[in-house]
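Researcher: Structure prediction, please.
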Amino acid sequence: MQDLKVTIVQTALHWESPIANMGMLEEKIWHHHTDTDIIILPEMFTTGFTMNAPALAEPMNLTTMKWMKQIAEQTGAAVVGSYIVKDDFKYYNRLLWMLPTGVYHFYDKRHLFRMAGEAEVYSMGSKTIIVEIKGWKICPLICYDLRFPVWSRNIKNEYDVLMYVANWPTARVQAWNTLLKARAIENLSYVVGVNRVGEDGNKTEYNGSSTVIDFKGEQVFNLIDEEIVHTHTLHYEALQGFRNKFPAHLDADDFSIGI
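Model: Predicted structure follows.
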């Protein structure tokens, strides 16, 4: 099994300005001259974390989706991030996983951040997804999902990487750091968390703290405050070697989630 290269894009975002954000992100991606398998963008990467869905939502197969398809095709990497989608007269904070071939999968955020009114604007998702690249299986989730470990439970090691895209404020960054480590330890998997920096239109501050955590809960990459495009390599043999040596998943409780 080959190792996996993941590229974290930690950046400030232009408030409610999709064209400006796509232009900015495209420039950052092209200036990062490193081969990679996955390019990971923050939550709501075209707008920032806004409740103004009626003005900013777009249907599938329009501007943002076509932009992601173009970037994936040009870089040869999967591109992942969430944006505001209108589908069947409902609004979703939707994560799109776009492959260079144009094949895509999507995940709708399950846990909506009611403290900011997200639950009043957006509809919740009903299922997780597992996507695959180079033989690696990946479970992508969104921000507030991090606080709910049952939703991310790695049943029988069905995934190798747990991935969170986020707009997680500086005021609660200790929870971000702690919970990401917990998810790695309890699920015997790598965890990658990608967060933004800067200040949004609501004067909420973000310090990034995008991170890569290994299957033992050790932080192998973390960066605070700076805008950065960083590529990190995940090692499959090391992951499987630890799972074989410490097979805690064999003693996991057997249950299913009722939706």
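Model: The longest strand covers residues 78-87.
Researcher: Thanks, that helps.
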